[in-house]
Amino acid sequence: MTTFVEIDHVDRVFHLPNGGKYIALKNIDLKIRQGEFISLIGHSGCGKSTLLNIIAGLDQASVGGVTLEGREVREPGPDRMVVFQNYSLLPWLTVRENIALAVDEVYQKKSKADRHAIVEQHIDMVGLRPAAKKRPSELSGGMKQRVAIARALAIRPKLLLLDEPFGALDALTRGGLQEQLMKICNEHNVTCVMVTHDVDEALLLSDRVVMLTNGPEAHIGQILEVPIPRPRQRLEVVNHPSYYNLRNEMIYFLNQQKQAKKRKIQFQAPTIISRNGLEKINLEIGFLPLTDAAPLIVAKEKGFFADYGLEQITLSREPNWQEIAQGIATGRLDAAQMVAGMPLALTLGAAGKTPIPVVNALNLSRNANAITLSKRLYNEGVRSLADLKAAINASPDKILTLGIVHPTSMVNLILRYWLASGGIDPDRDVSLTVVPPTQMVSQLKAGKIDGYCAGEPLNYLAVHEDVGFVAATALEIWSGQPKKVLGVREDWAQKYPETYLALVKALLEACKYCDDLRNREEILQLICRPQYLDIDPVYVRPGFIDPYDRGDGTQPQELAGYNQFYLNQTNYPNRTELLWMVTQMARWGLVPFPKNWVEVIERVCRTDIFGAAARDLGLLDIGEDDPIHLFDGKVFNPSKPLEYLQSLEIKRQIRVEEVFI
Ligand SMILES: Nc1ncnc2c1ncn2[C@@H]1O[C@H](COP(=O)(O)OP(=O)(O)OP(=O)(O)O)[C@@H](O)[C@H]1O
């Protein structure tokens, strides 16, 4: 993406009269393309206007900054025009004079006739010719806002900034103006950032909706791509297949922020409730709306948490894996469902982040990942990895984009491994991009990505919607691969040892329940409820209960063990597997390979806690650290990880360092 505006790690700290400080914005990082329409949405007071003012140059970031076409924004300028909710027109000037004032100021070198023509063109653009001689007091709210927009556009700003521009208008006027703005932006390729509270307005106008969390320290919680083609008609937008999904995502995010705020207020009261011999029985556990959240949902709904004394468990549905990582890092979440590599990556401080020791004493699921490629590739004859390589070779100018849910997820490591085994360099021959799971299918449908590696039900959804086919499943690449784990901070585990043990035991029981196939129908109904996956069970059945069609016309595939929660030593936090992940993260430059890898693995992989839980439950066959067999015939021998790493052909520069944890 060519960056037009870059908001580069912006913090805004306000110094308060009492000597304290208020951190309104924290680490806002966003790149905007030319011609893109971005909406900023979030609850009142979260910092939307503060951010807009920083982009406008009306306010300064305390940390980081903003660049427009590579130049730093330090003060207001005619290349950025702001349209405010209250119009800001000069009351003693007419419509024409208000617009002319800005035009005369900016275009001093143009002739009077040229300036006049610009003013008249913009009066027409917003349909105000009959009112051109009227003063603001003689205009309706909608007309005043049209003047403000015309005035802003007349000086051809590079960036149009709109702060709730239609907030004060009635619904009819608002609708008309939204359509006019959309038309003007399309015709003139205007780049816009708009603050709004209105979910439908954001979806109608935007290419991307940036959702801010509540302050203090508001940050970007989620970014939604709106894959609805332009030019847009309101009715077509509302009828677009992704509209209600996107709308639900936004409402869910906003509701969740509201609840988080409430919980923060309740936090004033003592938040640690000790009972039943446990240090803390009230836990907040994060999860993502994916099929493999089943053990957490079952533990709550079937009473396994309560059986182990954990009486007050809140399952918090999170928008993406970044939010899970942040929730654990800040202590907002006690524990979370995590992608398998996340405890390790957080502990090592992957990608230059501050290391946060996180431990795993329980694997929650295995397999149920797959690689989906687009129907377009299918129609070009791509069926296998070799076909994909041939397609890439045949079009060297076109770089395919493939989605992953998080850099530390197994899907990233598995997709990279699969590509590299076929001679495709995952960093050079294709482009990998992080997409929240909830947006994977809509981005594939919109042609923004050409495929992805993800968990279920995302692969089957692409097949069902006829936008993709499954090129390889986890069972074919590495049968039994770890998928989701239970992550908690190491200091949390030390502070609440009995609680942690109870949590592991309750979830082990839930995992066992999930792998009793007689319970699957019941579990399907539980996990699809609105507060969890919020999806029609029909989309989750394939692979979970029924076999599924891969979307390539072949017979439904045998999927026994595809969603695995307990059988075949699923839950053992296997050190060999973790070490393999270290090699892959080092292979792709996410982390250095730790000289002290034994220490790192022992620290993250808490087989001692798993062993204690298994013993208490009478489980004897708990698992062991066996070598790993992958689809390309290579065997990973844990006694020589560096040799293995060096033997891999496609890789980045390997750094071998002592890692201090
Ligand atoms: N000059 C200031 N000094 C101290 N705090 C400030 C200052 N300006 C803004 N804030 C605080 O920063 C936070 C963000 O304010 P901002 O106006 O950006 O929010 P907003 O999301 O635009 O809200 P709304 O939707 O209600 O307009 C608020 O908590 C506000 O009280």
UniProtKB/TrEMBL annotation:
<protein>
    <submittedName>
        <fullName>Nitrate ABC transporter, ATPase subunits C and D</fullName>
        <ecNumber>3.6.3.36</ecNumber>
    </submittedName>
</protein>
<dbReference type="GO" id="GO:0016887">
    <property type="term" value="F:ATP hydrolysis activity"/>
</dbReference>
<dbReference type="InterPro" id="IPR003439">
    <property type="entry name" value="ABC_transporter-like_ATP-bd"/>
</dbReference>
<dbReference type="InterPro" id="IPR003593">
    <property type="entry name" value="AAA+_ATPase"/>
</dbReference>
<dbReference type="InterPro" id="IPR017871">
    <property type="entry name" value="ABC_transporter-like_CS"/>
</dbReference>
<comment type="similarity">
    <text>Belongs to the ABC transporter superfamily. Nitrate/nitrite/cyanate uptake transporter (NitT) (TC 3.A.1.16) family.</text>
</comment>
<feature type="domain" description="ABC transporter">
    <location>
        <begin position="5"/>
        <end position="239"/>
    </location>
</feature>
<keyword id="KW-0067">ATP-binding</keyword>
<dbReference type="Pfam" id="PF00005">
    <property type="entry name" value="ABC_tran"/>
</dbReference>
<dbReference type="InterPro" id="IPR044527">
    <property type="entry name" value="NrtA/CpmA_ABC-bd_dom"/>
</dbReference>
<dbReference type="GO" id="GO:0005524">
    <property type="term" value="F:ATP binding"/>
</dbReference>
<dbReference type="InterPro" id="IPR005890">
    <property type="entry name" value="NO3_transporter_ATP-bd-like"/>
</dbReference>
<keyword id="KW-1278">Translocase</keyword>
<dbReference type="GO" id="GO:0006811">
    <property type="term" value="P:monoatomic ion transport"/>
</dbReference>
<dbReference type="GO" id="GO:0015112">
    <property type="term" value="F:nitrate transmembrane transporter activity"/>
</dbReference>
<keyword id="KW-1003">Cell membrane</keyword>
<keyword id="KW-0813">Transport</keyword>
<keyword id="KW-0406">Ion transport</keyword>
<keyword id="KW-0547">Nucleotide-binding</keyword>
<keyword id="KW-0472">Membrane</keyword>
<dbReference type="GO" id="GO:0005886">
    <property type="term" value="C:plasma membrane"/>
</dbReference>
<dbReference type="InterPro" id="IPR027417">
    <property type="entry name" value="P-loop_NTPase"/>
</dbReference>
<keyword id="KW-0378">Hydrolase</keyword>
<dbReference type="Pfam" id="PF13379">
    <property type="entry name" value="NMT1_2"/>
</dbReference>
<dbReference type="InterPro" id="IPR050166">
    <property type="entry name" value="ABC_transporter_ATP-bind"/>
</dbReference>
<keyword id="KW-0997">Cell inner membrane</keyword>
